[in-house]
Queue: 2 jobs
Job 1
Amino acid sequence: MKKWSLMLMLMVGLLILAACGSKKFEPLAINEEVDICAICNMQVKDDAFATQLTTKDGKNYKFDDIGCMNEWKNKNGTKNIGKDYVRDYNDKEWVEFSKASFVYDETLRTPMAYGVISFKDTASAEAFVKEQGVGSVLSASDLSKHEWKQNTDMMQMDMNGGEGHMDEHKSEEMEGMTSDKEMDM
Amino acid sequence: MVIRKSFCHLRVMLMMFFSLFLIITAYSGSASANTTSKAIPLQPIINAAQIGDSITLAPGTYLGPVQIDKRLTISGEGRATLLNSSPDAEVAVMIQADGVKLQGLNIQQHNGGEAAAIRVEADQVTLKDLVIHTFGFGIMLREADSGVIVNNKIRWFIPKGAASGKRGNGIDLYNSHGSDIRENEISYLRDGIYLEKSRNTKVDHNRLYHLRYGVHCMYINGSSVTNNIGEYNITGAMVMGVSDVMVSGNSFRKQNQNVHSQGILLFDVRTSQIVNNLVEGNRVGIYMQQSSDNTLQNNMVLRNYIGIQFEGSEGNRFQKNAFIANVIEAQATDSKNNKMTRNFWDSFEGLDVSGDGISDLSYAINPFYQQLVTENAAYQLFFQSPGMTFLSDLYTNDKEQWSTDPEPLMQLDSVHADVGQVSEGQGSVMVAGWLLLFFSVITILYMGVLRL
C-alpha cells in the first residue's frame, strides 16, 4: 500500500515536472473575424502573408505582413519571443521564421508593401524567383540586414517633386489655422 | 367536428402554399428563360462602332464580357443590363482605351474572387450612374490616371452571406493618380473605396454601409477624403501610411459591431488635416497611432465607447474638438508634445475664475487604465470598478508627460451648431430634476414622513 502511494506521488510529481518543462509553442489558426495586426491594426487575412509570434509568457501576436512582425521585433526586442512563424507562399503551411526562406523584390505586392514573402525551403523560393523573373532569395539571417523599405510609390522621382509642393501648401494652411480662423462645418 | 374543421383549414393552407410555389417557380422559370433567350451580345456592337462614337443601348439585357479598346461613349439610360455569367471571362467590362465613357448601365458580375465588374487600364475614363452587382470586385483601376467615378451604386449580390473580408472591394485603385470618386453608394462589400499608391485622389460625398472598411487609404499622399458618410462598417475610414491628406466633413456613425471597430483610424499619418468630422456611436471614435504633425480640429466626438485614442503619436495639434457623452473620453499613451488646447470635454468639471470661457484647471488624460488593459485585456472587467478608479487616481507617475489640455473650454463653441440640441436636452433634464426635488420636499414637509 505504501509502495503504491509512493509510486503515485512519484508519477504525479513527474507529470507536473513534465508539464512545466515542455512549453510547446504552436501556431494558432487565423480568425479573420477578430484577428487584427498587432502593429498596423489591419485585419489579418488567412493568406500566405500572415505571420505570428508567441512570447515566452504565452501571448500570441498576429501580423498581416512580415514587415509588421519585424516592426514589432524592433519595438519589443526578440529576447522574449518563444516562437515566431511565417507561412509558405504556396501551401500556407506555418513555418518557423528561422527555418524559412524569403524572397524580396520591391515590385511584390504584400499587405503593407514591404515586398517580402516567405517559403518553407530555399528550393521553392528559388523556383518562385525563376518563375517571376524578379526578386532575390534571402535567409532568416539575411533579413536582419534587410532595410525593410515599404514600396509606397511606383514613381519615386515624381513623388519627391510633389511633396515639395505639398509642404509649401501646408505651411500656408498652418498659418491660416493659427490666426484663429474657423473651418466651416 | 372540430377536428375535421381544422383538417379542412390545413388542406386549404396546403393548397395555397402549393399554388404559391407553382406561381413562383413558373415566374422564375420564365424570367431565366427571358434572360438567356433575349440577351444580346454587346461585343459585336462595340466592334462595329467607330472611334469617338456614342452608343445608346436600347432597354434590354446584354451579354458580357466586353472589351472596350477605343474611345467610345456607351449609355444605357438606366434600363440596359449587362450580364456576365460566363465563367471563362473574369472581367465583365474591360476598358483599355483613354477617354471611354460608360453611363446608366446595370452590370451583373457573376464571377467572384479577384474578378471585377469593370476593370480600367486607361486614363480619363468616366464611369457614371452605373448600378453594379458583383460577386467579386466592383470597379478596379490599374495604372489608370484621372478617372471620374460618379454616382454609381455598387453592392454585393446577396446582402448577407460570406464575411465581408472574403468579398471584393467596391472601388479599388492601385497606382492610379488624380481620380475623382464622388457620390457613390457602396454596400455589403469588403472595402468601399480602397486606394493604394494613388496620389491626389478626391473621395467626396460617398455613402458607405456594411463594409469592412468604408474608405481604406494606403500611401496616397495629397489626397482628400471629404463629406463621406459611413455607417455599420468595421472601420469608417482607415488612413494608413500617408502625408498631406485632408480628411474633413465626414460622418462616421455606428461602427461598433466588431471588437476592433472604429470611426476613423489614423496609422502612420503625417502633416495631414483631420477637421470637421463627426464620429458618433462607434467603439472608438478616432484612433490615432504612430502619427505625427497632424491637425485635428473641430471634430465632434459623440457617444462613442472611447472618444479618441492616441498611441505613440507626437507633435499633433489638437484643438476645438468636442467630446460629448463618450464612455471614456480620451486615452493616450506614449504621446508627447501634442498641442492640445481649447477642446470641450463634457464630463470635465472645469473652473473658470477669469470668466473668459476657458477653464483655469487643466484636463489631463490618465493613461493608467489603457496601459493596464494593453498588458492584459482581461482587466477590462474592472472597468470603472471602485478599485480601478482608486488606483487611477493614485497613479500620477510622469504626470507632466501625460497628454494634457491646459485650457479646456467651459462651454461648447457656437461653431458646433448641431450640438446645441444636446446641451438643451441636458438643460431640460436639469429642470425636471429640480422640479422633482421641489415637489418631494413639499410633499415631505406637508404630508410628513410615513408613519406605520
Job 2
Amino acid sequence: MDAVRLINIELRIGSFKLGPLSTSMANRTYNVIMGPTGSGKSTLLKVIAGAYRPNSGSVIVDGVDVTNKPPELRGIAYVPQGYALFDHMTVYGNIEYGLKVRGMPKSIRAREVYRIAEDLGIVNLLNRKVNGLSGGESQKVALARALIVRPRVLLLDEPMSMMDVSTRESLIPILREIPRKYDTVVIHVTHDRDEAYALADKVIIINNGQLIEEGEPEEVFTRPKRLFTAQFVGFTNIIPAKAVKTQGGSMVHVGDLTLHSSEGVEGNVYVCIRPEWFNVTDEGGLNVIEGTVLDVERGRMGYRVRVSAGGVTFNTVVQSKLSSGDVVKLSIPPDMVHLIPAY
Amino acid sequence: MVYAGELPLRVALAVSILILLLLIVYPIVLLITLGSAQLASALSVSSFIEAIEVTVIMSTLSALVAIVMGTPLAYLLARYEFRFKQILDSIIDIPIMVPHIIVGIMIVLAFASRYNIIFNTLNLIAHKLMLIDAALSRYGLLHALLSPVVNALVNLLTGITGIRFVNTLWGAVAAVAFLSSTYYIRVVEAAISMVNPEMEIVARTLGASPSRVFISITLPKVWKAMANGALLSWARSVSEAGALFIVAYSIYFNGNYIYPASVYIYESYVGVGLANAVKYSAALLIIVLIIFVAYRVALGIKRGG
C-alpha cells in the first residue's frame, strides 16, 4: 500500500491554481518534486503539511484521510526553506520541541535528543544558540527536530538551497538514507535537477500547478515523455523533426541530416539528445554528424561546444579542447536518440 | 547616499536638532526645572494624588482593553490577507484622525443618550421577559421552575443597562480605550509580522496546538512588543484630556468626584493660573516618566522593543 496518496488535489490561491493533481508515494522511498520557481511545488508541500486546505481532493497518509485534520494530527514533519529554526531556543530546545509538546518526560526527551543528535553528528551543537549556525549545521538541526517525532512523512522544501556546493555534496548521503533508516517517506521539493537525480527513488515533475510527469529518475532523466520534462531535466538538444518507422526503430530527418533512433515512432517528433551523449569520433558511419564548431565555453563537466551541422545547431559537452571553426565529427548511438511525439 | 560628515547632511542635521531642541527639549526642561522645586508641595495636595490615582487606574484598565481587543486583531492583520482587510485597517486608524472632543461626543451618544440602541434593546428584552414572567404566573409549577431563570436574566440585563457612562470610570475607560488601542495594535502587528510564519507551521507539524504554538513560539518573540505597546497606549490614556472633557470631566470614584489628572491641571490653569498649573504639570510629568523608565527597566525593553 502507498504510504502517501494525493487524490485530485486542487487549490486556488488568488490567480494561481494548483492541480487537480494525483500521485502516490511508497513507504521508505525518497520522492523528489521538481519544478521551476512558481510551479506550485512548495504550495503542494504545504497542502500535504496541512498549512493549506485544498479546495477539493484528499491527502491520504497510511490509508487515513488527513485532508481535514490539522497539521499536528497528521504525523507529518516539515522542514521549510530556510529551516525556520526557533531562534529563541538553543539547538537542544529546538530538537526537543516535538517531544515536549507531546508531554514526554524530561529524561526520555534527553535520551532521544542525544540519540538523534549523535545520528546526525551534531551533539557538539546542542548547547549552541541557533543564530550563527552554518547552513549545513542548521539543516541537520532542522532534520533532527523533524525526525525526533518519528514522522510518517518528512517534507523538505528546498533543503539545500542555502548551502555551498561541498556542504551540499556531504549532505546527500545523509538525506539519501533517511527513508530506510527512519522508516518514513521523504518528499523533497527542489528546482535543482542534479539534486533530484542524486536523491530520488521517484521524481515528480510539476509546472504551472500541474503534474507533468512522474517516474524513476533514470526514466525521467533519460526517456522523458513530455517536452517540458526534457527541457527541464537538461536536454539541450530538442529539435522538431519527422520520424519514419523502420525495422528496429525509426529514422528521423533533422535539417539535412538523417539520424537513427532505436525508438519506433512515426510522425512529427521532437528529437531529444542530452549534450553529454555525443562522442567525438574520427570514423564515419551510422549517426555520425560532421559539423563546424561555432563556439566553446568551459563547464564543470567539460567543454560546452556548439556545433553547426546540416542546418542544425547541436549542443555537446566534450573533453577535448576545440576552437571555433574546427571541423568535428560527433557520433550518437541510436538508443540515445530519444523521440517525443509532438501533438 | 550622503556620507556622514558631508556638508549637506551637517546642515540638515543642524536644522533638525535646532527644531528638536526648541520644540521638545526646551519646554520639557523648563517645565521640570521650574516645577521640580515644588514637587513636594504638589504631592502633598490630596486631591491631586487622587487625580493621579484615578488616572493611573483608568489608563491601566484601558491598556488591558487594548491587549484583549488588540492582540487577536494584530495577529489577524499581520498574518492573513482577507477581503475586508483594508476596511479593518482604516477602522483601526480612525481614532488617530478623529478630534478627541468628537470621540467624547460619540461615547456619550452611544452609551449615555436616548439613542443608545444597545441599552434600549436590552431594556426592551428585559421588559418582554418580565411580561412573560407575569403571564407564566398562572401556571404554578412551570412558573416556579422558570421564574428564577427569567428573573436572573432580567437582573443581568437591567444591571448592564444600569451602567452609567457619564462621569464614571466606565465612561472614562471607554473614551481613552477608543483613543489609545490603535497604538498597541500597530506596535504588536509590526512585531508579529516579523515572526517567520513558517516557524508556526513547523511547530504545528511537530504536534503543537494553535494555542501552544502562540505561547511557545510567537509570544516569546512578541511579548516585549506587547508590553511596549501596552505602555504606549497607557501613556496615551494618561495624557488624554479632550474626550474626558465630554465624557468624564470628573470621575465618580470611591464616593467622590475626582478630576482626571489632565482635567485637574486644566482646572488649576484656568482657575488659579500658570504657576499653579506648572507645579502640577511637572509633578505629573515626573511621575509618568518614573513609571515609564521603571517599567522599561523591569521588562528589559531596549530601544525599539
